[in-house]
Design brief:
With about 240 residues, the chain is of the alpha/beta class. The chain has a single domain (about 5-235), classed as Spore Coat Polysaccharide Biosynthesis Protein SpsA, Chain A (Alpha-Beta Complex). About 25% of the residues lie in helices and about 30% in strands. It is built from 8 helices and 13 strands. The protein has helices spanning about 35-45, 60-70, 90-95, 95-100, 115-120, 180-185, 200-210, 230-235; strands at about 5-10, 30, 35, 50-55, 75-80, 105-110, 110-115, 130-135, 145-150, 155-160, 170-180, 215, 220-225. Strands 1, 4, 5, 6, 8, 9, 10, 11 and 12 form a 9-stranded mixed sheet that branches. It has a two-stranded antiparallel sheet with strand order 2-3. Strands 7-13 form a two-stranded antiparallel ribbon.
């Protein structure tokens, strides 16, 4: 089975919870273990066989572009697209439509760090329409998405920040693989209660349309570098 060779990385946000740390750089360019978070992601995906990258930039885009250039320094090809309106993760994926064309792609938030070995699982889409990575609960549910699975470990529901007891122990880890069919569902998105277009709504709709959305448990370390405390802990 052929492997995915394209990846879309979301790096447009400032990361306001980082306070002064992101005055001059977007959050994905903050350093963890002496290199930008985004560089860890690019290198991990490149080692898994990804050759073509689209980085979605916005706040302080020039910092990202100066660091990665055309990607040749990292042995890959890098293109850029600018997210002008920050109206949610569902709409931002639409910016990757031309880049993806007819090909599947990995999508990662620019502030999610995972063990590089996991990228090898994410580039192997096989017969699935999409892959969603998860971690076992770890008490994170109130901050993100709860992934509900069937006995074949396929996604049946995705609940954003569930209130009360979560119906599943699987936490959405924020790295995905998609076929271009995802664009059918991002195009139909309505504003969520938070006033944003949510990628997770499109993934749920994709799964509930009868297509196979496989769930993959990540191994090793995982970090959502969401605030200064997480960043400090990673750099200890």
């Amino acid at each position: 089975m052929s492997k995915i060779t394209k990846a879309v990385l979301l790096a447009a946000g400032k990361g306001t919870r980082m306070k002064d740390l992101t005055n001059d750089v977007p959050k994905p360019m903050l350093h963890v273990r002496e290199k930008p978070i985004l560089q860890h992601i690019v290198e991990g995906l490149a080692a898994a066989g990804v050759t073509d990258f689209l980085i979605v930039v916005g706040y302080r885009a020039e910092v990202v572009k100066e660091h990665f250039g055309d990607g040749s320094r990292f042995g890959v090809s890098v293109r850029y697209v600018t997210q002008v309106v920050q109206d949610g993760t569902g709409r931002v994926v639409e910016l990757a439509k031309d880049f993806a064309g007819a090909d599947p792609f990995v999508l990662s938030y620019g502030d999610i760090l995972i063990d590089a070995e996991n990228y090898r699982k994410l580039v192997a889409l096989d017969s699935a329409e999409a892959l969603v990575s998860v971690k076992h609960n770890e008490g994170e549910m109130a901050k993100g998405g709860c992934v509900v699975v069937n006995e074949r470990f396929e996604l049946t529901d995705l609940i954003e920040k569930p209130a009360g007891r979560a119906p599943s122990p699987w936490y959405n880890a924020g790295v995905y693989s998609f076929r271009p069919s995802i664009f059918e569902f991002t195009a139909k998105l309505k504003l969520s209660p938070r006033g944003e277009y949510e990628l997770t709504d499109a993934i749920r709709d994709l799964a509930q349309s009868g297509r196979t959305v496989r769930v993959i448990e990540l191994t090793g370390n995982w970090a959502d570098v969401r605030d200064p405390e997480v960043l400090a802990a990673l750099n200890q």
